[in-house]
Amino acid sequence: MADFRLVNPEGWEYDLQSVYSAYIGYFQLHNIPWYDRTWGQFFETFEQFLGFSWPVITITDSWTGRAHIVTRLTTVGAFIKMIKTRFGETLPTPDNMLKVTHFETAQRHLRNVADWATYKKLYTTLPAVALAAFKTRIRAGEPNAIRELWAKRDKTFLAIDFEWSERNPATFLEWGYAAVRCGHLDAVGAWPPVPESNYRKGHYIIGDYVDKIVNKHCPTYPWQYAWGESQIIPRTKLPQVVQSVISSLVSPDTETTANSLVLVGHGVSSDIQRLEETKIKIPHNVLIIDTASFERALFNTGERGTMHDPKTGKLRAQGSTLSLGGLLHSLGIDPPCALHNAGNDAFLCLLALQKMLEPATATPVPDADARRKPKSAGLGTGMSLPVVFMGHLTVEGGGYLKSPGGTGSPRVRERERGGLETDEMGLVRRVSKYGSASPPGTDKDREKERDGWARSGKGVRSVTK
Predict the structure, then answer these.
(1) Are residues 259 and 293 in the same domain?
(2) In this predicted model, what pLDDT tens digit does every residue of 198-221 receive, in sequence order?
(3) pTM listed for this prediction
(4) What average pLDDT does range 217-238 have in this prediction?
C-alpha cells in the first residue's frame, strides 16, 4: 500500500470519538449555539466531524486493556486552526477528552479517517487489537491480567512439560501435563479447585530411549511419576498424543476472542518451541502463562515481600528468576516427589500457579498406598517394558527407599540382581532370583545375569526383546 506508514505510539493519546464528545459537552456547558455558527456543520454528527480527515492509530490502554482509535493533541490544534482560518472564530481545546496511556511500544500503522465507512472498518479491528495486547500482558506475567483471567473462572489451564536429551533437544524423553477446567468446576460449584481430585493429569515416557539416553547435567526421573499412571509410547506416537490432549480442551480460533485454553509452563518458551518443532497445532488465540515471569513480576512489584536465597542467605535481587524448585520452596511447598519428571513438573507448575492466585490452596501429598502399575502402550517393536510406579517412594526388593531411586547401600545393589514379581496389592517388587545366596557361577556368568537390566538413576526396569 502506497500510504502505509508506521509511527511510534508516543504522543498518540486522545480517543478520537471523545474529542467530538468533549466539544459537544463544552457547547452544552457554556450555552454556545453551535448550530447557528458557520462552522457548526462539523458538529452536526460524528461523521461530519470526521470530514476534517484525522490521522489516527489503534492502541490499547495500559490501565484498562481496552482498545482505542486515538489521535494527537497537535491534530486537535490543527483542527482549531482550520476553524480560525476558514471561519474567523477560535475554538478552545476541551479539557475532558479521554486520554489513553498506550500499552504498545512497537510502531503502529498510521491511517487517515475522513468518513464514517473508514472509521467503522477500523473500529471492527479493535477487539483483535485488545486481544493481541492481552496476550502480551499475560505472557509477560502481568499480575492484574493473570488475576483477571483466573477470576473469570471460564478458562482451562493446561500445564505442560517436556524432558528432552541434553545432546539433541529434538529427542524427547518424556511429556507430562496437568489441566484444570475452571468453567466446568465453577458450573458444578466446586471452587476453588482441589488439585488431587480436580486436576486432569498424565505422563508419557518415550520407550525408544528409556535405556539409551541419560542426561548428565540435569538427570530426569521418568519412573517416579507421583500423581497417576505413566504410559510408555513410541516416539512416533508422541505428537499424536499431545495433539489429542490439546484438541480436547481448546475452543475455536478467532481473531477477537481469547481461547478457552490457557497454556502454562515454567520457562514455557522452550516447551512452546518443542510444540512447534513437532508440528503441534495451537490456535493463535491461546493465552500463555509463564509461572517464572508471573512470580518475577509479583516480586518486582513488592507483592512477595523480601526474599533470601536459602543457600547463601543473600537478599534476592530485583529481576531475578526462580527455578521451579525455588518457586515451590518460596510458596512453602516441599515437593513430595522428584522434579525433572515431566508429569510431576507439570502438576507442580499448575499447583504453583494456583497457589499464587489462591494462597489457601493445600499442598497435595501422593498416597503411597494407592500406587498402581503403569500402563505399557504398544511400542511397535515387539518390546514391552514393565514399569515400577514409584510415586513418592521407590519400591525395591520388598522394602521402601526414598526417591530418587539411589543405589546407595551394598544390600540395595545386591537386590538389583533380582527379578520382579507382583504382590497381592498389585505392587511390583524386585526379589532375588536366588534368595539370600549369591548366584552360582563366575563373575562373567553373573554379569550375563544382569544383562537384561538397565539402571541410570531413573529406576530399574527389565527389557524383554
Answers:
(1) yes
(2) 999 999 999 888 877 878 877 888
(3) 0.75
(4) 87
Using only C-alpha atoms, the chain has a radius of gyration, in whole angstroms, of: 31
Q: Residue 305's domain spans which residues? A: 135-357
Q: What are phi and psi of 138, to 5 degrees?
A: -65, -45
pLDDT tens readout for residues 80-107: 999 999 999 999 999 899 999 999 999 9
Pair 270, 330 in one domain: yes
CA angle 341, 345, 350 (to 5 degrees): 160
CB atoms within 10 A of CB 270: 13
Residue 318 in 3-state DSSP? coil
Contact 71, 54 (CB under 8 A): yes
Residues 342 and 399 in one domain: no
Task: Specify whether 279 is located in the same domain as 349.
Answer: yes
Q: Calculate the dihedral angle through the C-alpha atoms of 213, 216, 220, 222, rounding to the nearest 10 degrees.
A: 30
**Long-range interactions of 397-404: CB distance < 8 A, separation 24+:** 397/429, 397/430, 397/431, 397/432, 398/429, 398/431, 400/368, 403/221, 403/224, 403/337, 403/338, 404/219, 404/221, 404/224, 404/338, 404/457, 404/458
Q: Which of 4-13, 325-334, 358-367 has the lowest average pLDDT?
A: 358-367
State the Cα–Cα distance between residues 65 and 338, nearest whole angstrom.
40
For the record, the C-alpha cell of 43 comes out as 458538529
Residues 266 and 223 in one domain: yes
**Three-state SS at 203:** strand
State the greatest distance between any 2 C-alpha atoms of the chain, in Å, as a whole number: 115
* End-of-domain residue from the set 124, 150, 183: 124
What single string gives the DSSP state of each residue in 238-251?
A: HHHHHHHHHHTT--
The CB-side HSE value for 288 (13 A sphere, CA atoms) comes to 21
